Amino acid sequence: MKKIIDDERLIYKCCHFYYKDGLGQKEISDRLGISRTTVSRLLQAGKEKGIVKIDVINVYGSMYDDLERKLEDRLHLKEVLIIDENEFETQFEHQERVNEEALKYLSRIFRDKDYIGVSMGRTLFNIANSKELADERDAIFVPVVGGVGYGQSNEGFHANDIAAAFAKKFGGSSIPFYAPAMFNNRDIMKGFLEERSIRKVTDLFAKLHTVVMGIGCTDRDGTLSQSGYLTPEELQEFSKKGVVGDCLLKLVDANGNEEAFSDFNDRVMGLRKEQLVTIPNRVGIAVGRNKGQAVLGVIRSQKVNILITDVSCVQKMIELLDKEAAECQEN
Predict the structure, then answer these.
(1) FRET pair for 2, CA 20 to 30 Å: which of 48, 88, 105, 269?
(2) Which part of the chain is the Sugar-binding domain (predicted)?
(3) What is the largest CA-CA distance in the chain?
(4) What is the CATH number of domain 1-60?
(5) Arithmetic mean of pLDDT, 237-251
(6) What percent of the chain has pLDDT over 90?
(7) Is 298 within 8 Å of 245 (Cβ atoms)?
């Protein structure tokens, strides 16, 4: 894996922020989650590599830079990373590309001694268990939803497993969350939250610097349905109410609203929204055209301020955004 100082994508963004957008080194440091020393080194590397001349040269393809910046500005996101696609690559090859780019990005923003929250699901499972290498980070990985799931049908996808896999990948440590991800009764969950062993984990939520989350579709093939958290009857009911996706197991509609699904969401054990929105880096990862509507809904809920995705998903998102804009003009 490339060192941060050799990451041409990062060098370009840093130079663009500094020379074109007029941001100071401290602002760039805060926005990209790197030290001011690293910002200075990246700016110097930009000169040495010929990125900074009379203009800032995009060495990895202006099409994706334009898309990234369009989404960052339009959706008020801290950063967007769009992963390339090749029509000749297999699904497995594309997933490996996603794993590599996601790990490279996470290596940049993870820091030693950070508390890092992780959710559950297939996307994070694939990244954490991939063959790709990651830079070592002595970080503490904390499940932000209950780490115990229903049955064994999705063994390895639960938050405890994901946290342990990320800790192994980055050379850090993890803390298990021995609580169900979903309760049948809110009152029982409230009682569970009073247990000392549970509070040892939930008290760490206030220390999180970064949280990494998958973004799911609410269909029969999604993690919620496949894991047994969402019954076919509930899926049908929530579809009528406009559900488009989930993040941290909590459902949202196309506008990011959750009120219609409060009976379900209030039974999820884990990080609350008011806690989540205070975390500096809220990374959502989703790929595929079918995730476009779900990603928009989750972003509008303010749960995500950094997006890692691919071209297909972005194209669907922009189609939806343009359609909404056209409908607004007509009205």
Answers:
(1) 88
(2) 66-318
(3) 64
(4) 1.10.10.60
(5) 95
(6) 76
(7) yes
